[in-house]
Each structure stands twice: as C-alpha cells, then as structure tokens.
Design goal:
By secondary structure, this protein is of the alpha/beta class. The chain has 10 helices and 20 strands. The chain folds into 2 domains: 321 residues, Glycosidases (TIM Barrel); 96 residues, Golgi alpha-mannosidase II (Immunoglobulin-like, Sandwich), CATH 2.60.40.1180. The longest helix has 19 residues. It binds alpha-D-glucopyranose. Alpha-D-glucopyranose binds next to loops.
Length: 451
C-alpha cells in the first residue's frame, strides 16, 4: 500500500540536483533562493474538502493519508463534489494562522490552493468548483491568507496539484487508474483549460508569491513542465519552483524530499523536507500519532545542519480550526527555538560530518521515520559554531577542531546565553553543562572564535 502513498514508488533518500540547463543560470537561482535558505523552517497547511470526511467514508475508516480519501474510497466525482455544500470554514482565521506560525518560529507558509481533488480554496474563473462559488463559505480563503501574510511580512507559497485532478475531466490519476468515467478526458486540454489558467490566477491576483509547490508530476513531460516554468518566470520571476513539477523530479529552484526524509549528508543546493506531524497531511479525526516536540526540534536541527529546510504540516479541520495537539507541539518547539534562533535562521551546515554517520532514516510499512533524537549536530554563523546535544548526552562535551582561537562558550537558555567554563580538548574545547538552563528539546552551545 505504501507504494501509493505519494503517487510514486519509494526511493532512497537522495537529492535530485536542481535543473541547471534550459532554466535560469545558477547565480540567478542562488539569488532567488537566498530568503528561503535563510528561513529554514516553514508551515505547511493541507486544507480542503477531504477534511470533512476526515479519514472515513460511509462508515469505513481508511488507514492512508486523509487528503486521498476520494481515491481510497473510489468516490464518484458527482458525489465528491457534493462535499462542497458542507464546507463552511467558519473558524478559519488567516491572521490567527499567521501569528501562530510566527509564534512557532516558522518563517514561511505554504498552503494547498488546490489539491488532487480539484477543489480550490481560491476564487477561480475557470472552474466553479471553488470555495467562493461552490460552498456556503463563499470566501476566498487564499485571498484572506495572502492579505494576512503580506501584512505580517510572512512569505506565502502555494501548493498546487498541477497534474493530478480527480474531478476535472482529463486531470491525471496515478497509473491512469480512473474510478469514474467522468474523470476521463484530454490531459493537455485539462492543462491548458484548468491548471495553467489557475496557476496564472494564483500568480496574478494575490500579490507576491514566495514559491509554488507543485506535486505528483504524473505525465509531466519536460515540454509540459516547461510551460509552467515559463508562466511562473513571466508572471513572478522571483517565485521559487520546488522539485515536483517534472516527472524526473529535478528540482528547479530547490529539491523536495519525501515525507520526513532527509539525506544522510548535506548538499550544496537548496532542498526541503516536507513532513507530516502525524501520519497524514489532510485532517483525519482518528490519527493521533503525533511526533513529539523533541523529535521535531531534532529533525529541524538535523535538516539545517545538512543545509536544508523543514516544512512541517498541520491539517486543519473542515471548519478551519487547527487540531489542538498539533498546535501544542509546534508552540513548544517555538518556545525552544525563539531564544536559540541564531543557531537556525540563516545558519550554515555542519563543517564536520562525522556526527551524521548512522543517522539515516529507516523505512516502516508506511513512512520513512527518523531515529530517536540522539547525538550531536552542528550549525554555523560567521565567527560561531553551534553545537546541539540531544537525548541523554551527559554533562561533558568536547568539540572537534575549531577554525580559530576560542573567544567564548555559552549555553543558550530560555533566559539568554550563560557563559560556560572551558578547558582545551585534543583539538577543540571541552566544557561542562550546568544542570540549570538545559532543555529536553536539545541543548545549544555557542562557541565563538576569532577567525
Ligand atoms: C504527496 C501526496 C500529497 C501531499 C504531498 C505533500 O505528494 O500525494 O497528498 O500533499 O505528498 O508532500
């Protein structure tokens, strides 16, 4: 079953290099991705009609990801479209979401504007199957979020399912396994009449778009993908394009890993790990398999220490409210992160690598999971290295070699930096952590040196 999860067969954690030819020069791309690499941590929001069924259909509960319920239950198009009549989103509050993301320490937001089910959260002129025209909500939720993000200076990106569309005729379905005759049609006609015009609407009507998050590139030949690239470059040249536009998954501005995957080692180009917080993207009433706050802080640090970004998901309920458990976890991580942010935002990757060995992911029946938070990680800023210690690490730590004479060593605590006494180790420094000021989400030690 897991083969179906992301619509493509599983692959080992590896990074597909951003496309270098037939696209922009890499200096241009480096300039475009600068803000993204600095941001490091983003909020993914999967919200749509699937939040209504919340994982069950006609009394049957489906164990797979919630936003694919239409496929799991082979729901006919006409019947699925009826879900719009119950979609109100009364509790969707864009400003609250933006301040929540801020409080959680997240520096960009990506929301599903149209997922594989074809329903759009924005007002589209090319399909009435949208939140304004087809639902009693009568609201353009994307406009609301865009306004709130722009007011707060929060970069906003749009997830858009360019290939798969299960309710517009001609939209792709994985392996062409249609379950309703109404889905059949001409794929290129779907692209030119629905997908391309909708991407145009998204890039025209909502102000600056930080990135477009394409997904499941079924039947996305180079030629078809290029049409989207041209559209994006024409309308918003600074908008980033992720790594799931084209069939070969080559990253355009950055590459996208799979759910919760990170590579064993860093890479020079920009990349991102999208991640579920439980085992679904879209809301499922009975999925309580939450990752703990210390797992999240560890993953964030691990990813940043390899030069990547972490895009962590919430799946609001059909009414727009955010499940309390996910809000609590993200807020806890935010409380830990904010006083230690200098070690994450704009931080460079580890100058070492020995600490990463054996850190790999392992595959379960459904997902790639990360090992328990343990060991150490390192990130850098000019003149400083940050050592993160996870798990039951003991009070003493010796750093590997440092690039200059040490000026100070501080434990970053909730109350601010606390200076530590140090002694010389073989090639670096050795220090002892006090019992106060430590955190179960990871201890962060800043070592400043003269370069
Ligand atoms: C996969 C799934 C999709 C989800 C996405 C998020 O591609 O098909 O449902 O939105 O992963 O990363």
């Amino acid at each position: 079953m897991r083969l179906v999860m992301d619509g493509v067969p599983p692959e080992p954690p590896s990074l597909v290099e951003p496309e270098k030819s037939g696209n922009a020069a890499s200096e241009e791309r480096d300039a475009r991705v600068a803000w993204f690499r600095h941001a490091r941590y983003g909020l993914f929001i999967h919200w749509g009609l699937y939040a209504g069924p919340a994982g069950s259909w006609k009394g049957v509960e489906y164990p797979e990801i919630g936003e694919w319920i239409m496929k799991w239950a082979s729901i006919p198009v006409a019947e699925y479209r009826e879900l719009a009549a119950q979609f109100r989103g009364d509790r969707f509050d864009a400003e609250e979401i933006v301040s929540f993301a801020r409080r959680a320490g997240m520096r960009y937001i990506v929301i599903t504007t149209k997922h594989h089910d074809g329903f759009s959260l924005f007002h589209s002129q090319v399909s009435a199957f949208n939140a304004v025209d087809a639902s009693p909500a009568g609201r353009d939720f994307i406009r609301e979020l865009a306004n709130a993000c722009h007011a707060a200076g929060m970069p906003l990106g749009f997830y858009y399912s360019q290939s798969q569309d299960w309710t517009h005729p001609g939209g792709a379905v994985v392996r062409d396994e249609y379950w309703d005759e109404a889905q059949r049609g001409d794929f290129d006609a779907y692209l030119s009449e629905i997908a391309e015009p909708q991407v145009r609407e998204l890039l025209t009507n909502y102000g600056p778009v930080a990135l477009i998050w394409f997904d499941t590139p079924v039947h996305m030949s180079d030629e078809r993908a290029t049409r989207f690239v041209n559209l994006v470059r024409e309308l918003q040249p600074n908008c980033l394009i992720n790594g799931r536009l084209r069939e070969d998954r080559a990253g355009f501005d950055y590459s996208s890993m799979r759910d919760n995957q990170a590579p064993d080692r860093g890479a020079g180009h920009a990349w991102e790990t999208p991640a579920t917080l439980n085992d679904t993207w879209g809301y499922k009433a009975n999925d309580h398999n939450w990752k703990s706050a210390d797992t999240v802080s560890f993953k964030l640090v691990d990813i940043v220490s390899k030069g990547g970004n972490y895009l962590l998901n919430i799946g609001p309920r059909a009414d727009g409210s955010v499940p309390e458990a996910s809000a609590e976890i993200l807020t806890k991580v935010g409380d830990w992160l904010l006083p230690r942010g200098e070690a994450i935002y704009g931080a460079g990757p580890t100058p070492y690598g020995e600490e990463l060995s054996g850190s790999g992911y392992f595959e379960t029946d459904k997902h790639w999971k990360y090992r328990e938070p343990q060991g150490w990680r390192c990130t850098t800023q000019p003149g400083a290295y940050y050592f993160f210690l996870f798990g039951d690490h003991g009070a003493e730590f010796s750093t590997p070699g440092l690039p200059g004479a040490v000026v100070s060593v501080d434990l970053l605590t909730d109350a601010g930096p606390v200076a530590l006494a140090l002694s010389a180790a073989d090639s670096g420094v050795r220090f002892r952590l006090p019992s106060e000021g430590r955190s179960v989400l990871g201890d962060v030690i800043r070592v400043r040196f003269r370069e």
